TrEMBL record:
It comes from Rubrivirga litoralis. InterPro entries: 4pyrrol_synth_GluAld_NH2Trfase (IPR004639), Aminotrans_3 (IPR005814), Aminotrans_3_PPA_site (IPR049704), PyrdxlP-dep_Trfase (IPR015424), PyrdxlP-dep_Trfase_major (IPR015421), PyrdxlP-dep_Trfase_small (IPR015422). Homodimer. CDD domains: OAT_like (cd00610). It is found in: Cytoplasm. It catalyses: (S)-4-amino-5-oxopentanoate = 5-aminolevulinate. SUPFAM superfamilies: PLP-dependent transferases. Its cofactor is pyridoxal 5'-phosphate. This is Glutamate-1-semialdehyde 2,1-aminomutase. The gene is hemL. Belongs to the class-III pyridoxal-phosphate-dependent aminotransferase family. HemL subfamily. The modification N6-(pyridoxal phosphate)lysine is found at K271. GO terms for molecular function: glutamate-1-semialdehyde 2,1-aminomutase activity. Its main location: cytoplasm.
Length: 431
């Protein structure tokens, strides 16, 4: 499968799109700035595959950056969306679907005693911070270098993949005053946490963390690290916010909080819970969430929030995961794909470290385990870019950045992974 991949129609569309939209895309990483070649314009998704407008079919390890735990267009989700669309796409009023999805989420995330649906992870993280600030009466927020919590102004400081990949240390248009209360420290560094809380603990409203980092490549917390965050935040009366927008439902059905048995005060979700439609949620302790309007004075609203199409899609996805071994199948695919990457790299004598957690995996062109954003930056970005191109020629689609995690679905059956494994062998050999 190394015959030439034609990209003529994608090239035409990309040229046209660049005259219409910044970079020709609706979200920056999609523009392929850190890899070679033209972004593929997608005609359709089918199970584990993306099919582009030139008719090339790729095994997809991006899956819309996480949501598609059942692969593209699974029957259960398509049917739920279709049936719901016929009953209306938005009501501007509550629906039973929200109640059902809230139950489904709470069953798996019991720390979310109350939750609010929003339209994106960005909104969820931004709103969680607002609630935390209101609850504590404090302004400062601690986040980790390389962790991404969406593009709300105050959280757009040292924010991982998209930002890192484009080499923007920060973003113009974000007033210094807005990030002045955002304190950024390195991930997996216990001393840095203790130090910032000893210095400013009485002013810190919340600490936000991607409990398993996924927006600087896949980076696990060190043993006991999340427990330490729990203890330090509690000691200082700050809220611990787990941003599980990416890892929720993926690293474990109950998220990183179940996997590591750490209970955050607030949790942010997105991606998987919308079954591929735009959605987010935030929630947690009832005493914090009761401050949110209309129970309390903290304003937060949304015309399309709790959107019935998104709720129906999320419910269908989670229902299918419950009724079948879909999560286990996706996790098996993540494990075997990571093994395939490692063995292909080893055979080619290329230093690569791989990891898989649940239904996600990642790898770095590096020769040691990595724990922080500074660490991951020592990886060979040029090698990743070359590998990315070689894999596209072999019909395997990886995230177009060395600092994004990879995702699997239940549609990534053993024979699909076997096909990908052959492509990895051949691509690493050609590096
Ligand atoms: C994707 C992501 C977000 C932002 O979600 P959007 O729906 O893209 O706004 C926030 N936090 C994390 C950890 C994410 O991976």
């Amino acid at each position: 499968m190394t015959d030439t991949v034609s990209t003529a129609r994608s090239e035409d569309l990309f040229a046209e799109a660049q005259g219409l939209m910044p970079g020709g895309v609706s979200s920056p990483v999609r523009a392929f700035k850190s890899v070679s070649g033209v972004p593929r314009f997608i005609e359709r998704g089918e199970g584990p595959y993306l099919v582009d407008v030139d008719g090339n079919r790729y095994i997809d390890y991006v899956l819309s950056f996480g949501p598609l735990l059942l692969g593209h267009a699974p029957d259960a989700v398509t049917q739920a969306i279709t049936e719901q669309a016929a009953k209306g796409t938005s009501y501007g009023a509550p629906s039973p679907l929200e109640v059902r999805l809230a139950h489904q989420i709470q069953d798996r995330y019991p720390s979310m005693e109350r939750l609010r649906f929003v339209n994106s992870g960005t909104e969820g993280a931004m709103s969680a911070v607002r609630a935390a600030r209101a609850f504590t009466g404090r302004n400062k927020v601690v986040k980790f270098d390389g962790h991404y919590h969406g593009h709300a102004d105050l959280l757009l400081a040292k924010a991982g993949s998209g930002v890192a990949t484009l080499g923007l240390p920060d973003s113009p248009g974000v007033p210094a005053a807005v990030t002045a209360d955002t304190l950024v420290i390195p991930f997996n560094d216990e001393a840095a946490v203790r130090e910032v809380f000893e210095r400013e603990g009485s002013e810190i409203a919340a600490l936000l963390v991607e409990p398993i980092a996924g927006n600087m490549g896949l980076v696990r917390p060190r043993d006991g690290y999340l427990q330490m965050l729990r203890e330090v935040t509690e000691t200082h009366g700050a809220l611990l916010v787990f941003d599980e927008v990416m890892v929720g439902f993926r690293v474990h059905p109950g998220g990183a909080q179940a996997l590591y048995d750490v209970t955050p005060d607030l949790t942010v979700l997105g991606k998987v819970i919308g079954g591929g439609l735009p959605v987010g949620a935030y929630g947690g302790r009832a005493d914090v969430m009761k401050l949110v309007a209309p129970d309390g004075p903290v304003y937060q609203a949304g015309t399309l929030s709790g959107n019935p199409l998104a709720m129906a899609a999320g419910l269908a996805l989670l229902g299918e995961v419950d009724a079948t071994g879909a999560w286990e199948a996706a996790a098996e695919a993540a494990r075997t794909t990571a093994e395939a990457v490692q063995s292909a790299a080893d055979a080619a004598g290329v230093p690569v470290v791989t990891d898989a957690v649940g239904t996600m995996f990642g790898f770095f062109f590096n020769d040691r385990s990595l724990f922080s954003f500074e660490d991951v930056q020592t990886s060979d970005k040029a090698a990743f870019s070359r590998l990315h191109g070689l894999l596209l020629e072999r019909r395997v689609y990886l995230p177009p950045s060395p600092f994004e995690a990879c995702f699997t679905s239940s549609a990534h059956t053993p024979d699909v992974v076997e096909t990908a494994a052959e492509a990895f062998q051949s691509a690493f050999a050609a590096l």
